[in-house]
Request: fold
Amino acid sequence: MGKFAQRFVSHGVAMRIVHGLKAIKVEHENGQPLRIAGIQKTSVEFFGEEAVVRQASQRVVSCLVAGLQLCGIEFSAVSAGKAHDDQDEEGRQSGWGEIGTSIVPVVLLTHARCFGIVADELTAQAIDSLAGCPDARLREVLTSLIRNLHHFAVETSLTEAEWLAGIHFLTDMGRITSPHRQEFILLSDTLGLSMLVDLINHGAGGGATESTVLGPFYVPDSPWRANGDAITDDLGDNPLLVSGHVRDTIGRAIPDAVVDVWQNATNRLYAVQDEHQSPDNLRGRFHTDSDGAFAFRTVRPVDYPIPDDGPVGHMLAVTGRHAWRPAHVHLIVAANGHGKVTTHIFDSTSRYLDSDVVFGVKPSLVRTFVEHDPAVEPPPPGIAGRWCSVDIEIVLQPNAGESRD
Ligand SMILES: [Fe+2]
Reply:
């Protein structure tokens, strides 16, 4: 089917498909029949009961329509065509379609056997191979994966070259992935899958803080720090005071919650990406005090591109997408008896809020980073010169079974 659709494109003409009971033809827009060079009438045949042929041809038309629509070709269906019926030596019904000089109909019906019936049987066989899987959930997930992968291949008329390109793409992703580089999370993020999984699993509701992607730069076991500490040795020219409270959904303070934070430096890089930064630069863990409060000093985060020198960057480039994320601070907040939230706080001045390459922005997570003139508003201890601040309230859902650890 893929070659067939491509053949249409190579002819460079607008076409419509006419589907009759036993015949499908392709015409130019002006109604003249289209002759496809290189297809021999002897190769056109189909087998089976009329009802089966009709069902199969309808199925293949659906596949073809999807392929042609991808090529920008319109589809219309009317009843037409002249069918030739024969019986082969075994008495099976066979035939071919003919309209003018076009022999396309029978080719399509042959494809009906190949792509419709056989593909369905293959999909069923692959799913049936999981029958002995003792893990019911694993069987359920793999069954859906097989079904949808097969549907993807049929819908796109995946060519062997495209399949192999996909294999090479995944192989390259594996090669570039290391303890410091997670290309698979990048792919998941940039395809929107990470946010979809987040949506499925963390529909906040009830006034709780919304979650967003973890991202590829989280490193567990950040150093413990005291409230008010800096998470970097160099506050630079854009110092930021982050302060906030952790509360439950009815407004009660949550003391002793753990607030795990990390962000990028003014050179756009996270410590895990940058050998010139201390491994603990711009990350840390805090305990909320008896009022549920926490605070730390840092630098104002900046917009940054995700790593785009690997397969995912190549995908972004060839699809005309940019690689940028809006400036943000990452947080994971956990407390005994409450649901943990993995989230960001985004800087409202970022130009990428509407086009985050990983689709991670939720309006409720955007905050105003307030700029202060030190002559008017003296900076807090440990900060000098112009500074800015942002206040964050994190709201956690009660969850009796959840431990902060
Ligand atoms: Fe980030």
User: Anything to note?
Assistant: Residues 104-128 form the longest helix (25 residues). Residues 2-133 form one domain.
